[in-house]
Amino acid sequence: MREFSREIKKIVIKVGSSSVTHQNGGVNIERIEELAKEIVNLENKGIRVILVSSGAIATGAHRLDIERPRGDVSAKQATAAVGQVTLMNTFLKAFAEYGFSIGQILLTRMVETNKIMHENAENTINRLIDMGVIPIVNENDTISTFEINFGDNDTLSAVVAKLVDADLLLLLSDIDGLYTNDPRIDEDAKLISEVSIIDEKLRSMGKDAYSKVGTGGMATKINAAALCMERGIDTIIANSIDLKNIRRIIRGEDIGTIFKGKTNKNGEAFKNIK
């Protein structure tokens, strides 16, 4: 069984577009209901959860019956505005079945550099948690530009994990974890269970692995893990094909790849480092 660097009391779960939408971009209601069930089960155990969800652009394009925009920034922003409403309505209904409320948080990268925005985001998310509300975070696509966007929700989820000093970041997508080589072309590629140091050799393993639907690939997940490791936060990359993997991971089962948070000389995870 795995041992985590910290006792798991607060967790950030990031789900990719492939976890909450169908291949055509339509909302996958069944999957969102399953996800809500897993999160509520953690909440009932006393583990606070912040959800980072992708899928707004894909969902909006499906809703508008148009091709998913790629290069047109304003089209992507408008499509995301439509899709975000659709996603949140689905999450609202799914969590309401279990008596839970949700709160929407839309962030830009300025939350990292602007002290007031950083404090406001931190205070809002923590207050929602204290109130028993499930915070659902996404990038504010409607106003983000190249200078202030995250570009992928893997990075966003790592920023959120640091913001709230989470004990674990769980990155769920259609990727099993980090392999020694691209498993699509190398049948001998092996899944790496644990990583304690991220070096250039390890980064090279993730350069070509990508998700079928979302914008983030393995490289962005490794970068997200690196951000969290410096704060003593464990990160796990796992496949969301079976959302029961969430409960299995929390139990300590060896699923996906864990990136171990750094510890001090006493073996304790670094915490509360600004």
From TrEMBL:
<keyword id="KW-0028">Amino-acid biosynthesis</keyword>
<keyword id="KW-0547">Nucleotide-binding</keyword>
<keyword id="KW-0641">Proline biosynthesis</keyword>
<dbReference type="InterPro" id="IPR011529">
    <property type="entry name" value="Glu_5kinase"/>
</dbReference>
<keyword id="KW-0808">Transferase</keyword>
<feature type="binding site">
    <location>
        <begin position="173"/>
        <end position="174"/>
    </location>
    <ligand>
        <name>ATP</name>
    </ligand>
</feature>
<dbReference type="GO" id="GO:0055129">
    <property type="term" value="P:L-proline biosynthetic process"/>
</dbReference>
<dbReference type="GO" id="GO:0005524">
    <property type="term" value="F:ATP binding"/>
</dbReference>
<keyword id="KW-0963">Cytoplasm</keyword>
<feature type="binding site">
    <location>
        <position position="153"/>
    </location>
    <ligand>
        <name>substrate</name>
    </ligand>
</feature>
<dbReference type="Pfam" id="PF00696">
    <property type="entry name" value="AA_kinase"/>
</dbReference>
<dbReference type="InterPro" id="IPR019797">
    <property type="entry name" value="Glutamate_5-kinase_CS"/>
</dbReference>
<dbReference type="GO" id="GO:0004349">
    <property type="term" value="F:glutamate 5-kinase activity"/>
</dbReference>
<dbReference type="GO" id="GO:0005829">
    <property type="term" value="C:cytosol"/>
</dbReference>
<comment type="function">
    <text>Catalyzes the transfer of a phosphate group to glutamate to form L-glutamate 5-phosphate.</text>
</comment>
<feature type="binding site">
    <location>
        <begin position="215"/>
        <end position="221"/>
    </location>
    <ligand>
        <name>ATP</name>
    </ligand>
</feature>
<feature type="binding site">
    <location>
        <position position="14"/>
    </location>
    <ligand>
        <name>ATP</name>
    </ligand>
</feature>
<dbReference type="InterPro" id="IPR001048">
    <property type="entry name" value="Asp/Glu/Uridylate_kinase"/>
</dbReference>
<feature type="binding site">
    <location>
        <position position="54"/>
    </location>
    <ligand>
        <name>substrate</name>
    </ligand>
</feature>
<comment type="pathway">
    <text>Amino-acid biosynthesis; L-proline biosynthesis; L-glutamate 5-semialdehyde from L-glutamate: step 1/2.</text>
</comment>
<dbReference type="InterPro" id="IPR036393">
    <property type="entry name" value="AceGlu_kinase-like_sf"/>
</dbReference>
<feature type="domain" description="Aspartate/glutamate/uridylate kinase">
    <location>
        <begin position="9"/>
        <end position="239"/>
    </location>
</feature>
<keyword id="KW-0418">Kinase</keyword>
<feature type="binding site">
    <location>
        <position position="141"/>
    </location>
    <ligand>
        <name>substrate</name>
    </ligand>
</feature>
<keyword id="KW-0067">ATP-binding</keyword>
<dbReference type="InterPro" id="IPR001057">
    <property type="entry name" value="Glu/AcGlu_kinase"/>
</dbReference>
<dbReference type="InterPro" id="IPR041739">
    <property type="entry name" value="G5K_ProB"/>
</dbReference>
<dbReference type="InterPro" id="IPR005715">
    <property type="entry name" value="Glu_5kinase/COase_Synthase"/>
</dbReference>
<protein>
    <recommendedName>
        <fullName>Glutamate 5-kinase</fullName>
        <ecNumber>2.7.2.11</ecNumber>
    </recommendedName>
</protein>
<comment type="similarity">
    <text>Belongs to the glutamate 5-kinase family.</text>
</comment>
